[in-house]
Give the backbone structure.
Amino acid sequence: MATAGDGAALRLPLDPDVDFESDVEVAAHGLRRGSRHSQAIIVGALALGGVLGAVSRSGVALALPAETDRFPWGTFLVNVSGSAALGFILILVLERFPRGRLARPVLGTGFLGAYTTFSTFMVEAVELVRAGHPATAASYLGASVVAGLVAVWIGMASARVALRAERRRRAGRSLQEDAGDTVDGPRGAGASLEVRTLLHDVVVLDEIEALDR
Amino acid sequence: MTLDLLLAVAAGGFVGAPSRYLLDRAISRRRESDLPWGTFVINATGSLLLGFLTGLALAGRLPDIVKALLGTGFCGAYTTFSAFTFETVGLLEGGRILDALGNVVVSVAVGLGAAAAGLAIGLAL
């Protein structure tokens, strides 16, 4: 669950593609008998996401075919856009449906995991070197990593902005509905608890509050 | 792209994504470390395999349909860039700058080495 408390640093699940087991446990609480069944459904959902991701990636590769003497824009665009989407989805979309057990495996692990690719990235860099373009290979490596990291950050930041707006809107509405009941306004305990529940274990509440200040 | 190649890519993705999940989970359970070892092992082994397939293809010993199935489909879906970048940003946000830097440098260096080794083996066969 949420690691709120110390407020020191935002902790993300270090293996985002795997961590959804806790979602399963929440949703299938007390349904141990069904866990094998749940696992099969999740693996099936992953496979479906994998099909869509792999086919989408080859669609981009078809539109922007890689050559061994040019910067591989196709894979670059796939990896950067997939990184942005994963950052956005893991922060925002899935906490809106914290008990939706299939959204994360299908979209995150399945689709985006399969859409983006590390092996093609590596092999293209090696082929550029082999074809006598080490400088292009180096810029491809550096640009992919830097743009990928920035893309994740932009995706996460966009999701947080959207979350804050949503939270203010909800808190404002609840204040109007029962003015006097809420002790200390939009950032009070009620709103915090709601957000804490929503955020599940993806985001630490304190980080959002810190951003608000 | 012909329909059979597209279906081969789809079949590779169908197997590749769940394989990544299952292996990642097995590695995470075995290791206490909170460094993203699962993604690292997956990306390194997938790069080795794709390098090998690419070497075979360059030597003219790999039919297009097998390249689509195992290369574009399986290796592409099995390995992942988005989890790599996301996990690295997670380390950065936790203030673990050196771990993040190490993850990037080691993942890329080992991935390149694996891809180059696989390519050499595929060409030599």
In short: Chain B has one domain: 3-124. Chain B has five helices and no strands. Residues 3-30 of chain B form the longest helix (28 residues). The mean pLDDT of chain B is 96.
